[in-house]
């Protein structure tokens, strides 16, 4: 830790520690359903009902394409996700939540929110707004893969 309050090393250490602790809490909530945090990221992205190209899902979930394909295969096997050819660009595949996937996402979302509330994590968007602002300042080009860390806004 730095001797200077607010030094960049303090910010990096604090954000890293918060991310690790949040990931552990989330993993504990999802473990009962045999889901990983990466699978949760995919379900959250697809929960908007729009369907997303696999390349976008890969960037948003911070997963390499090959790893994402294996993960989505598992979610398809569990009837949580399905894939379709993009009607506007037949070279692309879009992923969507199934009806069961939407129900499971809603159920798990409630469990995650309850767990975070029990930990005292603020439910308002102020924290997400600050993080999104930090990301925008650090990545002015606005690459989606970096913005994914902030997660969906509610």
UniProtKB/TrEMBL annotation:
Gene Ontology BP terms: response to stress
Keyword Cytoplasm attributed: no
Pfam families associated with the record: MarR_2 (PF12802)
Entry keyword set: DNA-binding, Transcription, Transcription regulation
SMART domains according to UniProt: HTH_MARR (SM00347)
GO molecular function: DNA binding; DNA-binding transcription factor activity
Domain HTH marR-type intervals: 8-140
UniProt name for this protein: DNA-binding transcriptional regulator, MarR family
The species this protein was found in: Micromonospora sediminicola
